[in-house]
Design a protein that fits this description.
The structure holds two protein chains of two kinds.
Chain A: H1 6-13, E1 21-30, E2 34-44, E3 48-53, H2 59-66, E4 74-79, E5 82-83, H3 88-94, E6 95-98, H4 110-120, H5 125-138, H6 154-166, E7 172-176, H7 184-200, E8 204-208, H8 212-218, E9 221-226, E10 229-235, H9 236-239, E11 242-250, H10 254-263, E12 269-271, E13 274-278, H11 282-295, E14 299-306, H12 339-342
Parallel strand pairs in A: 3-8, 3-9, 6-7, 7-8
Antiparallel strand pairs in A: 1-2, 1-4, 4-5, 9-10, 11-13, 11-14, 12-13
Helix pairs in contact in A: 4-5, 5-6, 10-11
Chain B: E1 4-13, E2 16-26, E3 29-34, H1 41-48, E4 56-61, E5 64-65, E6 76-79, H2 91-101, H3 107-117, H4 133-145, E7 151-155, H5 163-178, E8 182-186, H6 190-196, E9 199-204, E10 207-213, H7 214-220, E11 226-232, H8 235-243, E12 248-254, E13 257-262, H9 265-278, E14 283-288, H10 293-302
Parallel strand pairs in B: 3-8, 3-9, 6-7, 7-8
Antiparallel strand pairs in B: 1-2, 1-4, 4-5, 9-10, 11-13, 11-14, 12-13
The chains are: A alpha/beta, B alpha/beta.
Chain lengths: ~350, ~300
């Protein structure tokens, strides 16, 4: 035990410098049967990172371990260089956490709650009051802050949860489903706010969400976990990189265009509302342009298709056997995962 | 053909008007019911489902009034937003109970079918209290579909579901719609509505703000110029050629390409390929930037 090899100690001892979150071989079992995390190793760097995964994939368990509230069965985790098991207190003083569920007391005002939580995070009374006022203003709560939380709408409650996460001047925010229950306007406002906190305040953010479109919109990186294991950790731009397929949509005459593109040897395939053709250099663009111009069709879309985060969660990337299968308009199931490009 | 018809339907609670003079027809296929929080979507759904009586107006499903007409439920499946499940039952018991309440001849078989359609077979003998939110949502849908109804109303069916479950539920609803059923669902996630259904009914402040295919609705907003992002082998030259056309009202060079505003959508889309060919330019991208349901919805709320 004393003569532990130096290499092992190096691996297990020091966190990587610059990393915001680091998990090494993190495993958590509940009882003997339930494995929430299975040897998860991942490093999260500064910026906005999306945490995605199925229900029960281990997202909540990971967040609890990172906050030092739950001890892993084995493996180690570091947040901002602090060990999650030993330095939970230090981590919580540097981290703001926005829980998913509705956890706000209905009978206090937002100002009272956020000030109180500011004091709990270690701020002196006056500073807590000032910080609470600041963070409520940042999230866009003004006069309403003196009203009891019980009278708030869902959107306002989400803002209070975000404000209390911000009050302790954190270096890292953990947000669990921040847009849950919000209507479109509320979602847009919340997403803008998160992006602003990430870019202007320079606070690193880990945001868990089921809405992959949101992750694509605001995150720089994403971490996908499945059944407690790492599925993918990558930058959003590389997950959503362009495919080699060109999507062409016309408002009418799609049959004419399909026939013309086929005649030119582009092998068009029906996809959602348009046609997919395999990109083979600049000539493909010219052939599409000339076909549309010759037929005089209204061209409403022509763009390279991009990969989507969603593809990580498709069961089997099965190629539709028959092009007719993918005729269904705007049909999620018929979305070829690069399969159309193969054709 | 089964349809849902509303004629001049209003509903008020005391002095609060929740739904105000809504007239609409919903036919077979998948229809999205949209609106901000508090717009009256749930009230409208409850009236269609026969849970609430309209203060004024008339609602029929397949030609028959839904209020005080329990017979109606043979053709109607309802998935409420609230967690309306009995947590002390197993999933199978819950769905079978629903089948029995409908008086189906073979309740167990019907329940098994509905449960397997929702991919809940594995967990069906567990208590509902042990289910995750997404599983509870799916068992609710199974109970609503157990009697193979022609009309299905779903209030926020995607709530709490993870990405894979969302995809599966979208596929399921799409198939049900293709089979000629009337599927009405409400959702706040506009990307999903856009993919699942082009047909929307938008409720704002209790009134029907728009109805129909959202792309057609967008075309009708003639006061909003259409914006396209165009890329070519020489954006500046293409911009010069485009600004000479009457259909184009503005052209701007941006880092992402050429931003083109047009007040005449039809003419512009018919011209763009020809103009770039005449100018000897390679057209590499034509991307509409405000045709999504997201922007249509925002425009509807703003107007």
């Amino acid at each position: 035990m004393i003569a532990q090899p130096a290499t092992t100690r190096d691996q297990a001892g020091q966190p990587e410098s610059g990393a915001v979150i680091e998990a090494r071989g993190l495993t958590k079992r509940y009882g003997l049967t339930v494995t929430a995390l299975a040897d998860l190793t991942v490093t999260i760097w500064p910026g906005i990172t999306g945490l995605i995964g199925a229900n029960g994939a281990g997202k909540s368990t990971l967040i609890k371990i990172l906050l030092g509230l739950l001890e892993p069965t084995s493996g180690r985790a570091f947040v901002l260089g602090h060990d999650c098991v030993r330095d939970g207190f230090a981590i919580r003083s540097l981290t703001g956490y926005m829980p998913e569920h509705d956890c706000l007391p209905p009978d206090v005002t937002a100002t009272e709650l956020v000030t109180h939580l500011g004091r709990m995070s270690g701020l002196p009374p006056t500073a807590a009051k000032e910080r609470a006022a600041d963070s409520l203003r940042h999230v866009g709560l003004y006069e309403e802050r003196y009203r009891q939380i019980g009278t708030y709408s869902t959107g306002m409650k989400q803002r209070v949860k975000l404000a209390q996460a911000l009050v302790g001047d954190p270096r890292l925010l953990l947000l669990d489903e921040p847009t849950n229950g919000l209507d479109p306007a509320g979602r847009t406002a919340m997403l803008d706010l998160i992006a602003k906190i990430g870019s202007e305040f320079g606070i690193s953010i880990l945001v868990a969400s089921h809405l992959l479109g949101e992750i694509e919109q605001i995150c720089d990186h994403l971490v996908a976990i499945d059944a407690g294991c790492l599925l993918r950790a990558d930058s959003v731009s590389s997950v959503t990189r362009a495919t080699a397929a060109l999507l062409v949509e016309v408002d009418d005459g799609i049959e004419l265009l399909q026939a013309e593109l086929a005649r030119r040897g582009l092998g068009p395939v029906r996809f959602q509302r348009g046609l997919l053709v395999q990109l083979a250099g600049d000539a493909t663009y010219d052939a599409v342009r000339d076909s549309v111009a010759d037929l005089g069709l209204p061209l409403c879309r022509m763009e390279q298709r991009r990969h989507q985060v969603e593809e990580l969660f498709r069961d089997a990337p099965a190629a539709p056997a028959d092009p007719a299968v993918s005729v269904a308009p705007a049909m999620p199931g018929s979305q070829p995962t690069g399969a159309a490009g193969v054709r | 053909m089964t349809t849902i018809e509303l004629r001049g339907v209003s509903r008020w609670y005391g002095n609060v008007v929740a739904v105000n003079g809504v007239t609409l027809t919903i036919g077979p296929g998948v229809t999205g019911l949209l609106g901000p929080n508090g717009a009256g979507k749930t009230t409208l759904m409850h009236m269609i489902a026969g849970f609430l009586v309209p203060s004024r107006g008339e609602i029929t499903v397949a030609g028959r009034s839904t209020w005080r007409n329990p017979d109606m439920f043979r053709q109607l499946g309802v998935v409420p937003e609230r967690d309306s499940v009995y947590s002390f039952l197993t999933g199978a018991e819950f769905v079978t109970a629903s089948a029995k309440l409908h008086g189906l001849p073979a309740p167990d078989a019907a329940a098994g079918r509905a449960i397997s359609m929702l991919e809940m077979t594995e967990a069906q003998h567990r208590k509902i209290s042990t289910y995750s939110k997404g599983m509870r949502q799916r068992i609710k849908v199974a109970a609503a579909l157990v009697h193979d109804p022609e009309v299905v109303l779903l209030d926020e069916p995607f709530n709490g579901m993870d990405p894979r479950q969302r995809l599966h539920m979208m596929d399921l609803l799409h198939v049900q719609g293709e089979q000629g059923r009337v599927i009405v669902f409400s959702s706040h996630i506009l990307e999903e509505v856009e993919r699942l259904s082009g047909i929307i009914q938008v409720i704002v402040g209790g009134r029907l703000a728009a109805s129909g295919d959202f792309r057609a609705i967008r075309r009708l907003m003639t006061n909003r110029p259409h914006v396209f992002l165009v890329r070519s082998s020489d954006d500046r030259a293409l911009g010069a050629a485009l600004i000479g056309r009457p259909a184009v009202s503005a052209v701007e060079l941006t880092a992402h390409g050429l931003q083109v505003r047009t007040s005449d959508y039809g003419t512009f889309t018919r011209e763009i390929a020809r103009i770039s060919r005449e100018a000897g330019l390679r057209l590499t991208q034509v991307q509409p930037s405000d045709e999504s349901l997201e922007s249509v919805f925002a425009y509807l709320l703003a107007s």
